[in-house]
């Protein structure tokens, strides 16, 4: 599979997040240099965008088979390749499923409690909802990658 084919949404999200982080950080440095004051919102927005960048980047890596995994056992026991791939899929599904479940509960609680962010006073669920959404997208990309590996459309080693 061409690495550019999959995960276009995540690529766009990661790119947008990185551009915005760079722009607001640059603007903050310039303003601080000329005025000895800084924008109050930059840290809060940057942390939020870094979470999006991390999950979107992990999703892209997942889809293109460039995530970190231990392939030692696959090389050591080539006859067990299929069960090992399925075991990797299952273990990853459990972890991402937990992130999805607990992230969803956390986002719902933030919404119900009407919590606000400390810096800007925005609803916290605006920030937190991205955690389960991007975890769900990673589950989809993980499954796509696993199917492609099992069908031989993706190299085992990136």
TrEMBL record:
InterPro entries: DctQ, TRAP_DctQ. It is a multi-pass membrane protein. Residues 23-151 form the Tripartite ATP-independent periplasmic transporters DctQ component domain. One of its GO terms (biological process) is C4-dicarboxylate transport. GO terms for molecular function: transmembrane transporter activity. Pfam families: DctQ. The keyword Transcription regulation does not apply. The chain crosses the membrane at residues 12-33, 45-63, 84-104, 124-143. Keywords: Cell inner membrane, Cell membrane, Membrane, Transmembrane, Transmembrane helix, Transport. The keyword Oxidoreductase does not apply. The complex comprises the extracytoplasmic solute receptor protein and the two transmembrane proteins. Belongs to the TRAP transporter small permease family. Part of the tripartite ATP-independent periplasmic (TRAP) transport system. This is TRAP transporter small permease protein. It comes from Stutzerimonas zhaodongensis.
